[in-house]
Design brief:
The chain has 3 domains: about 1-85, 3-Layer(aba) Sandwich (DNA Methylphosphotriester Repair Domain); about 90-185, Arc Repressor Mutant, subunit A; about 190-360, Arc Repressor Mutant, subunit A, CATH 1.10.10.10. It is built from 16 helices and 10 strands. The chain has helices at about 20-25, 65-70, 85, 90-100, 110-115, 120-130, 135-150, 155-160, 170, 180-185, 225-235, 245-255, 275-285, 295-300, 305-315, 340-360; strands spanning about 35-40, 45, 60, 75, 190-200, 205-210, 215-220, 240, 290-295, 330. The chain has a 4-stranded mixed sheet.
C-alpha cells in the first residue's frame, strides 16, 4: 500500500513522494523514513518532531541526515535527527569496518552482515550518503594513506604496502594519485611552474601555471602565505616568478568584479577524478551573480544522490575564482564552508552582485 511507501520497513531507494511525505509530517509519523528541512530556519528535523509545523512551501525533503547537512542545514536540537549516527548507524558501521581493513577486499556481503542489511542495500545506502561506493571509499582512503606515507619519506615500495595496497602494480596504475607513486613522491619534480602573487580586494592571490595551463590559484592573508601554499602543493617543482601569469590574476578578478572574462576560459592544468572534473566544469558554467546549492548541482550532473561528492569536489578545487566554487551554497542559502574562508566567500558573492547591478543599469 502507498501508506507504507516511506515507512522504515520500506525500500529506501525510491524517490521521495513529496505529497505523502508532507502528510506524514502533518501526522508526525514516527516511522517515516526521511528528514525534512525548513529553508526559513536552516534547520532539519525528523517527521515526528514536535516543533511548530512549517509552511509547505518552505520544506525540503532528504533521505538522510548527511544529505541535509551537506545541503547546509543544521540539526534540530529538539528531535536530534543525527542521534542515530551518533549511536552508530549502518553507514557508520560500514565506514568503521572499511577503515579497519584497508589491507584486504571488504565484500558487500560482509558489510551487510555488520550493518544488518542486504548487500544491495549496503551499496545503494552507502553511495547515497557518501557519494561513492564502498569500494571507491576504500580506494580513496588507501590513496590518502599512500600520499601521507610518500610525503613522510622512505621507499615507494614500503609506502605502497603501508597504505594497504596488495601489490605495487595496483598503486602504480596511477588511479590512486592521478600519477604514479614515483612521480608523486617527487613532489612535482620536473614540472616548471611560473607564478606570481598580487594584492587583491579579497586578500593576497597566488597563481601558478604550467605549459598546459593554470594549475593553482589560492587566496591568503599575506603574500608569504599565498606563495607557501603553492610550494606546499608542488614542493619539488621548479618555481619561477613570471610576470606573464599576471593575466590570470586579472582574469580571475574580472570574472568576479565585471569585465572581460575570456581569460577564464583558457586552458587549465587540473588533475582529479572524472567526477571531480565534471563538477569543476559545471562550476564554470554558473553565471556570475548566481548561486547553486550542492544538491542542485548534483541534479544538473544527472545524479541527485551525489550531493556529498559534489561538496567534496568543491572543497578540493585548486583554482579559486576561475573555477567559482564560491557560487555553491547550502540549500537554505547559507554560505557553508569555503577553502579560503567563509568571509572571503561572502565578499566574492557581494562583489558579483554589485557587478551585476552595475551592468543592469
Amino acid at each position: 500500500m502507498k501508506s507504507n511507501f516511506q515507512r522504515r520497513d520500506a525500500p529506501t531507494t525510491s524517490p521521495i513522494d513529496s505529497e505523502l511525505a508532507w502528510s506524514q509530517i502533518l501526522a508526525r509519523d514516527p516511522e517515516a523514513l526521511f528528514f525534512y528541512a525548513v529553508t526559513t530556519t536552516g534547520v532539519f528535523c525528523r517527521p515526528n518532531c514536535t516543533s511548530r509545523r512549517p509552511l509547505r512551501a518552505n520544506v525540503r525533503f532528504y533521505r538522510t541526515a548527511a544529505e541535509a547537512q551537506v545541503a547546509g542545514f543544521r540539526s534540530c536540537k529538539r528531535c536530534r535527527p543525527c542521534a542515530d549516527d551518533e549511536r552508530g548507524g549502518p553507514v557508520e558501521k560500514i565506514r568503521t569496518l572499511i577503515e579497519a581493513h584497508l589491507d584486504r577486499p571488504v565484500h558487500l556481503a560482509e558489510l551487510g552482515r555488520i550493518a544488518g542489511l542486504s548487500p544491495f542495500t549496503v551499496q545503494r545506502l552507502f553511495k547515497r550518503v557518501m557519494g561513492v561506493s564502498p569500494l571507491q571509499y576504500q580506494r580513496a582512503l588507501r590513496a590518502g594513506q599512500l600520499r601521507g606515507a610518500l610525503r613522510r619519506g622512505g621507499t615507494v615500495t614500503d609506502a605502497i604496502y603501508e597504505a594497504g595496497f596488495s601489490s605495487s602494480s595496483r598503486a602504480h596504475d596511477g588511479a590512486a594519485l592521478g600519477m604514479t607513486p614515483s612521480r608523486f613522491v617527487q613532489g612535482g619534480k620536473g614540472m616548471k611552474i611560473g607564478f606570481t602573487t598580487a594584492r587583491t580586494p579579497f586578500g593576497w592571490m597566488v597563481v601558478g601555471a604550467t605549459v598546459r595551463g593554470l594549475c593553482w590559484l589560492a587566496l591568503a592573508d599575506t603574500s608569504a602565505e599565498a606563495e607557501a601554499s603553492l610550494r606546499a602543493e608542488f614542493p619539488a617543482a621548479t618555481l619561477q616568478r613570471d610576470s606573464s601569469v599576471m593575466r590570470w590574476v586579472e582574469a580571475a578578478l574580472n570574472a568576479v568584479q565585471g569585465g572581460a572574462e575570456e581569460g577564464t576560459q583558457a586552458s587549465l592544468d587540473l588533475r582529479g577524478t572524472a567526477f571531480q572534473l565534471r563538477v569543476w566544469k559545471a562550476l564554470r558554467q554558473i553565471p556570475r551573480g548566481e548561486t547553486r546549492s550542492y544538491s542542485q548541482l548534483a541534479r544538473e550532473l544527472g545524479n541527485a544522490n551525489a550531493t556529498r561528492a559534489v561538496a567534496r569536489a568543491c572543497a578540493l578545487n585548486r583554482v579559486a575564482l576561475v573555477v567559482p566554487c564560491h557560487r555553491v551554497v547550502g540549500a537554505s542559502g547559507s554560505l557553508t564552508g569555503y577553502r579560503w574562508g567563509v568571509d572571503r566567500k561572502r565578499q566574492l558573492l557581494d562583489a558579483e552582485r554589485r557587478a551585476d547591478a552595475r551592468s543592469a543599469r
